[in-house]
Amino acid sequence: MILRDDCSALDASDELSSLRSGFRLTDGEIYLDGNSLGPVSEATSRRVNEVIDTEWARGLVRSWNSAGWMAEPTRLGDRVAPLIGAQPGEVLVADTLTFLLAKLIGGALELRPDRHIVITDVANFHSDIYIVEAMAARAGRPMTVKAIDRTTLDQELNDDVALVLLTQVDFRTGEMLDMKSITQKVHAVGALMLWDFAHSAGAVPLDVTGCDVDFAAGCGYKYLNGGPGSPAFIYVRTKWQSVLQNPLPGWLGHARPFDFELKYEPAKGMQAFVTSSPSMIALAALDGALDVWDHVTMEQVRAKSLALTDLFIDLIEDRLPGVFEIVTPREHEKRGSQVALRHIEGYGIVQALIERGVVGDFRDPDICRFGFTPLYLRYIDVYDAVERIVEVMNSEMYRDPRFTVRNAVT
Ligand SMILES: *Cc1c(COP(=O)(O)O)cnc(C)c1O
Predict the structure, then answer these.
(1) For ligand 1, is residue 199 a contact (CB within 6 Å)?
(2) Which residues pair with 147 in a beta bridge?
(3) Strand bridging mode 361-363 / 367-371
């Protein structure tokens, strides 16, 4: 039996505990939705204000040069690179995730011009499926997109497959895929591998270099806390940078944007994947949010993430045996940083919990999703969250009609 005091003791010896005060959190509320929208940090607020009050207000147009605005997409890319195991110059921050996937998919299909199949996961996030289908339809040759049950990948791989797009941590179940072995299998048939890190970056250690990943993209507003609609990032392995073409070219990806040449000539390196003017206020928010990673390693975050999710699973099993199906894998090597609980009344349960100050979210048809972010969550938060889940379940308050009417954002 785990006691609240045991959790307090874990907090007292937690080497990450001082980071929590850097985030703006609401007293009494337990935020288990950092996997959907991370909270604001003090550094984020400071950096956004600096861009507005100093660089923009005073510097005005000069700041494109004097404040280094033009270099922000690549400079922030280099700040993200260590979180995914990339080298400097291999990551770019720009646009949002779906747009960046379009650029990578469009470019990658041109690198395998004799092949006609793209494989993705039928359980993938819908936006990934829409964009891969749209880009495949515009490839200039007949392409088939196969959204498969990912456990059948081995049978689906053959020498007609151009590209495989998988999300490394399943957004519903929290299952983490083995990036190294899957990338190897994809390469064995001569196909290219594109990983979506939306639920991985800032949540689990990643090694794109060691896993020989070709391309990857990830989200700025989930575990990286870059704010609503934050710019996203892409990774292009160095060996592909000279041949991969940006299918959405714009002036700021040109080798010499201020020569105003009518013939497009891509800049060297990741700059070629920039299309438009950097969105400076949004980039400033992500820049500030990334400061926390100067004080913590991904390994420390992973160790605490597993401890928090283990604790949550153990408490749920202990207090509410048989009430939920625990969908997230028990094996550490297969778990991201969230826990998904299946219940037929899932929507109402999540709404009732939000009213009781435990913010998670619901994913159709029956998944209650709880994200665990070690940067600001304490062990007692996990304990208290489970206490409130027990209250909601035992009182059946989730059956109240006020919790069962669906909002636009679930
Ligand atoms: C959140 C998410 C997206 C959406 O990204 P946008 O930046 O809103 O385009 C796409 N794919 C996956 C897997 C996600 O989790």
Answers:
(1) yes
(2) 120
(3) antiparallel
CB of 127 within 6 A of ligand 1: the answer is yes
Ligand 1 centre distance from Cα of residue 124 (Å):
10
CB atoms within 10 A of CB 297: 12
Q: Where in the chain is the domain with CATH 3.90.1150.10?
A: 4-31+297-404
**CATH of 47-294 among 3.40.640.10, 3.30.450.40, 3.40.50.720, 3.40.50.300:** 3.40.640.10
For residue 287, what pLDDT band results from cuts at 50, 70 and 90? very high
CA atoms within 13 A on the CB side of 124: 29
Which of 33, 36, 96, 97 best tests ligand 1's pocket when mutated (most atoms within 8 Å of CB)?
A: 97
The reply to whether ligand 1 has any atom less than 6 angstroms from the CB of 121 is no
pLDDT in tens, 313-360: 999 999 999 999 999 999 999 999 999 999 999 999 999 999 999 999
Tokens of 252: 């700021």
- Residue 273 and residue 240: Cα distance in Å, rounded? 12
What pTM value is reported for the model?
Answer: 0.97
List all residues 6 or more positions away from 333 whose beta carbon is below 8 Å from its beta carbon: 176, 178
CA of 170 to the centre of ligand 1 (A): 12
* 4-31+297-404 has CATH 3.30.720.120 classification: no
Pinpoint the residues of the chain covered by CATH 3.40.640.10. 47-294
Q: Catalytic amino acids?
A: 125, 196, 221-222, 369
Q: Is 78 in the pocket of ligand 1 (CB under 6 A)?
A: no
Q: Quote the ligand 1 centre to 168 CA distance (angstroms).
A: 13
Residues 6+ apart with CB under 8 A from 386: 312, 315, 316, 319
Residues 14-34 have pLDDT tens digits of 999 999 999 999 999 999 999
Report the separation in Å between the CA atom of 108 and the middle of ligand 1, taken as the mean of its atom positions: 19
